[in-house]
Every structure is written in structure tokens, then in C-alpha cells.
Amino acid sequence: MKVSILQFPGTNCEYDTVHAFKQLGAETEIVWHKAESIPEDTDLIVVAGGFSYGDYLRSGAIAKFSPVMKAVTTYANNGGKVLGICNGFQVLTEAGLLPGALKRNDNLHFISKHHTLKVENSDNIFLEKLSNGDVVNIPIAHHDGNYYIDEDGLKDLKANNQILLTYSDENGDVKNPNGSVDSIAGVCNIEKNVFGLMPHPERAMESILGSDDGVKMLEGFLAS
Amino acid sequence: MITAIINVSLKAGVLDSQGKAVHHALDSLHFEGVSDVRVGKQIVLKLDTADKTKAMTDATKMCEDILANTVIEDYKIELI
């Protein structure tokens, strides 16, 4: 299992992501944004979190034009697996690989804390180790995490089981920290090979650091 | 040389949290008669052309490709 992790100027979660996947026994490689191809034996691309290009203009807006993103788009269109975490999710929506957009949090604050999430759809490789209705404890750290999609888009997400996770309380009831439509924390594309979420599973790998619920999430990619 | 003034703002119907916060601040300062506030951003481009049609075509493409996210934002282009 080989995981290629993208690095733009301003990315800051790439080494956490390396650490998390190494812990699971995967081989990892950091790929600089100027690369025009993805390492050949890549099983999963992770667009890591951070502040690519300083979040100038909009979060993820400038990163989508990096040379590596063309290769990522080709890889995804050929069925390759791609996971965007936090800023990576923003990049994937800006690039049109995932539906919707991420707006400024409703309360205008940067939110950094552990948050519980409810698994909405586990019939995909990312969440297959979990079951629908499970609640996981994963850190969030974002300013622009307010997921927006119009009504028609939301209907499509629901009809195709594309909503992965929603923000909830510890019982799985809705608790929305940032104003996201339907409390959505993560979605996938209709083909279920491109995944994006604002919370950071790579920061929840050891219980001594608050939670190891990220293990069950990232492990899904290793099983397939 | 043509200057393109581009205003980007959240679409009508998309909640503008910054606008709401500014509205609240105006109320706190007792400015009356403000029924709504929308906050956007302005991007000013100096274009090396004298052809207004070309300038409008180019600026529109720039807005569609990068300057606005049309999932959530509208843009208006003014040429001077």
C-alpha cells in the first residue's frame, strides 16, 4: 500500500499524514505541487490540510491550478482513490472533483477542538470499517468549514449516499459547529473514489492524544 | 489600457455571515434604516487592450476560472 501525500506552499499537515499512514503500515511519499505526475505505484493520494497559498482569494482556489492537480484529476477520473482533508477538501471542491463549496464558518471564528461526528454512509472504502450511525471523535481546525450546496445538489448527495459524515453530539444527534448545510462534515463523489472532509482523522491516531478513532477511518483504505 | 473592476459577492440566498456581523455592528452604533448588509470583495485588473469586447471576454473567463467560485458567488464586471 503506497500513499502519496500532496504538499503545496502552505500545507502543514503532510507530516502528520505521513505519520498516521506509517503507523498503519503503509509506504508514504510526499509529492511537491510542481510534480507533473503521481508516483506510479500510488494506491491513494491524500491532499493534506493546511493553508495552501496562504488561503489567498479563497481557500483552495489557487492550489487547484498547481501542476500536480492535473495529474490528480486524471488519476481520479481513472478511478484512483483520493482523500482531501480540511484544506485538501477545499482544494478538491474548488477543482470540481467534489460537489459543493466551503464558506467562512457562520460564527466567523476559527474553530479548533475535538468534535463528534456521525457516520451517515459506510458503504464506501473510506468508512467501511465503521457502520452507519457510529459516532467518532475527531479534531476539527478550520475557518472555512461551512459546507454549502444548493437544494438540488443536496438531493443528489442524499440519493446517491454521498454524505459521509455529519457533525453531531456524542449520541449522534445533530450539533452543527460551523453552519454547514445539513451539518455535513464530509462527502464523496458519485463514483465513491474521491473523498473529502473537514475534520482531521490523521490527528486522531492515539488514545493518549485524545482519540484513536481516526485509525478505523484511514484503515479502510488499507483493506481494499 | 482598460481597467476592469470586478465585484465578487455571495449569491442571493447564500447566508453572508460577515454581512450579518457588520449589520449587527451598525445596529450597535445606532445607525438606523439599514435593512441588509452584504460583504464582498473587489478585484481591479489593468488589462493591456483597448478593445472592450475582448476585455469583457477575458475578464469573464478569469471570473469563471478562478476569481469567483460560482457555486456560492456571483460577480459583476465594470470596465472603465
Count interface residues per chain for the largest interface: A-B, 20 and 11 residues
Unreliable spans of chain A are none
Number of domains of chain A: 1
- Extract low-pLDDT stretches of chain B: none
CATH architecture heading of chain B: 2-Layer Sandwich
Determine the CATH superfamily of chain A. Answer: Class I glutamine amidotransferase (GATase) domain
Could you give the order of strands across the largest sheet of chain A?
A: 2-1-3-4-11-10-9-6-7
Percent of residues of chain B in beta strands? 25-35%
> What's the count of strands of chain A?
11
* Gross CATH architecture of chain A: 3-Layer(aba) Sandwich
Helix content of chain B: 25-40%
Helical content band of chain A: 10-25%
How much is the average pLDDT of chain B? 96
- Tell me which oligomeric state these chains represent: heterodimer
What does this structure look like?
The complex is a heterodimer of chains A (224) and B (80). Chain A has 224 residues and is of the alpha/beta class. Chain A has one domain (2-223): Class I glutamine amidotransferase (GATase) domain (Rossmann fold, 3-Layer(aba) Sandwich), CATH 3.40.50.880. In chain A, 22% of the residues lie in helices and 26% in strands. A nine-stranded mixed beta sheet of chain A has the order 2-1-3-4-11-10-9-6-7, sandwiched between helices. Chain A has a two-stranded antiparallel sheet with strand order 5-8. The longest helix of chain A is centred in the first third of the chain and has 11 residues, at 67-77. The model of chain A has no long low-confidence stretch (mean pLDDT 97). Chain B has two helices and three strands, in the order βαβαβ. Chain B has a single domain (2-79), classed as Mth169, Chain: A (2-Layer Sandwich), CATH 3.30.1280.10. The model of chain B has no long low-confidence stretch (mean pLDDT 96). Chain B starts with a strand and ends with a strand. Chain B has helices at 17-28, 52-67, and strands spanning 2-10, 40-47, 73-79. Chain B is elongated, with a radius of gyration of 16 Å. The chains are: A alpha/beta (224), B alpha+beta (80).
